[in-house]
């Protein structure tokens, strides 16, 4: 009799264990209704903290099952790692734990565009929601290499600044010894200053523009660069309007309309192409240039020639504006009188 009771007990216990195991396996492997609203950030890696995160993200509605799953997978070598993770739609509990244990955290990107000043760069970093902390060590103008920088949570904003500074130092250290004989600049800092002017001046024919500026420096002629006058007014902020003649009269060491030589520091963070243009300027006899309003510049050796070029450019622009205005007027009349 006792033997039969024992057998019944063990049979019942075996069935209970089997059903419980089946229920557990179904619970942890079944697809959930999980729809991610944002990435999951795991700040603690203890079993209780991981289970709590699974409950909070509604990947499980049973704290005991979540805790057992965490402990079992940790026993099997799947230990959750600190960081930010992107969990897919309808992920199961086991799949979520495997992702949290993979260490494949989300990679974010932030771009510092060519020609961004330090203040513009800092503002962009401050607006980035995936970065943490403030910027306490303000970088010098021209010390950041424009590029796209990858980072993982948690990365401080100051760390991005350090990364960009390190990238700029490496680039300059590599390229400075390779500069062309046509480059008369004496130091890497002078190259950065000229490159920053080129960066704000033009995105085309940079090497020729660099050659023109170096010709001016050779003979002690003022650079007369409009971007330096803008920097004298705004120190890296957006100017917000066209430059006027009176703006060129500002008394400031950055204004190359009033001061000879290079300005005291770079006026922006120049990109690689502008730096290379400053280090490898094209040999030219020109001292002047004006944007042709289309896709290039008109270069000249003398001021008289430069003045004629400006007048010719203005006539072309005026004709283009007049033609555009006539076309718009005709289109408006056609709409009114179909």
Features:
two-stranded antiparallel ribbon; two-stranded antiparallel sheet; 11 helices; 338 residues; Dna Ligase, domain 1; 8% strand; mainly alpha; 3 domains; disordered C terminus; 8 strands
Task: Describe the fold and architecture.
50% of the residues lie in helices and 8% in strands. The chain is mostly helical. The protein has three domains: 75 residues, Dna Ligase, domain 1 (2-Layer Sandwich), CATH 3.30.1490; 65 residues, no CATH class; 137 residues, no CATH class. The strands form four sheets. The protein has a two-stranded antiparallel sheet with strand order 1-2. It has a two-stranded antiparallel ribbon with strand order 3-5. A two-stranded parallel sheet has the order 4-6. Strand 7 and strand 8 form a beta hairpin. The C terminus is likely disordered.
Strand order of the largest sheet: 1-2
How many domain modules? 3
* Overall mean pLDDT: 84
> N-to-C SSE series?
HEHHEHEHEEEHHHHHEEH
Number of β-strand runs = 8
Ends distance: 105 Å
Summarize the amount of helix as a percent range: 40-55%
Q: How much of the residues is beta strand, in percent?
A: 5-15%
Q: Could you list the spans in which at least 5 consecutive residues all have pLDDT below 50? A: 16-24, 329-336
Number of distinct helices: 11
Shape: elongated
> Given the helix and strand composition, which structural class is it?
mainly alpha
**Radius of gyration, in angstroms, nearest whole number:** 33 Å
Biggest sheet descriptor: 2 strands, antiparallel
